[in-house]
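Dear Dr. L.,

I hope this message finds you well. Following up on our conversation about the binding site, I have prepared a predicted three-dimensional model of the protein together with adenosine monophosphate. For your records, I am including the exact sequence and ligand specification that went into the calculation, followed by the structure tokens. Please feel free to forward this to your student if that is useful.
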Amino acid sequence: MGKKIFSGVQPTGNLHLGNYLGAIKNFVDLNNEPANECVFCVVDLHAITVNQDPQELRNNIRETVATFIACGINPEKSIIFNQSAVPAHSEAAWLLSCVARMGWLNRMTQFKEKAGKDKEKASIGLYSYPILMAADILLYDTTHVPVGQDQKQHLELCRDIAQKFNNDYGVDDFLKIPEPLIQKQFSRIMSLKDGTKKMSKSELSDLSRINLTDDKDLIVNKIKKAKTDPLPLPSNTDELMKRPEARNLLEIYSSLKNSSLDNSVGEFKGKKFSDFKDKLTQLLVEKINPITLEIKKLVNDKGFLDKILLEGHKKANNIASKKIKKMQEIIGF
Ligand code: AMP
Ligand code: TRP
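The resulting structure of the complex is given below.
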């Protein structure tokens, strides 16, 4: 039996190598399996949990669609749409926020990280963000959710919310309990400037990440400046535990090459970082540059991107509006 896949990406600009290797590459593989039904959502409602400039947001929504397609997602074989276009997402988020418990949300580490020291000043949306994410997933009877490692806790919360809704209303199996699909390896790509920090859109220094819109020269420069340590490359993977930067670069290499970390360590053991970096740069340019060129071409074709969003949102609305109607009936409206 095929899987029902749902995943979301925020249209906040700067989609990077971590998004690609941790999530979007996996979307493409799942989309290529004919039996799967895939829904890929540009989660613009999630984006506004922090300030967004309206014009930039509009551009970023289209750029995210362009990135999906440039990475290999087939719009004919999947539903691609933006979250705000389907009202059931906001409605379901409210209904589920009456099921979710404060204590559950208080444990979410992403909120703690994003809110920083001054939690009083964080938006309520940033706090209840994982409930909206649960709504996204549950409206589509999703069986599998491909995400990077950082979303694991949100997925567990989604499962708890679904279970509690089913229990509270005595509707066994109404909300389907989804499985996370997190790659066993390379599901957390780290910053090029600090191997202990996640590669992130919001990191101030652009040198910390490879954006999917970076041209060849930028890739060359960023890998040249990527942090390393003074030793030659290690001869076994155990040694990498204490060398986060070396580990991250070798993981990026392995993931791009669809090879194991062991193989990559074997290929470069005892070599100088400069030799390894040359090979890594070559591979990055080979794999990422075609995507970059395609994104740049597609973002100029607003008509094409808007058509994909329009068709996607009609299909998504058709599914989600039926589910929310049943939810309302169950609740007693
Ligand atoms: P976001 O950009 O936060 O909407 O994330 C989109 C997807 O990319 C999610 O599935 C994340 O888990 C994944 N992701 C984001 N950053 C990384 C990273 N540094 N390594 C691996 N996956 C990531
Ligand atoms: N919270 C996810 C992130 O920041 C994005 C997201 C929103 C999502 N809704 C989703 C991912 C539903 C998977 C399924 O990366």
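In brief: DSSP finds 13 helices and five strands in the chain.

With kind regards,
A. P.
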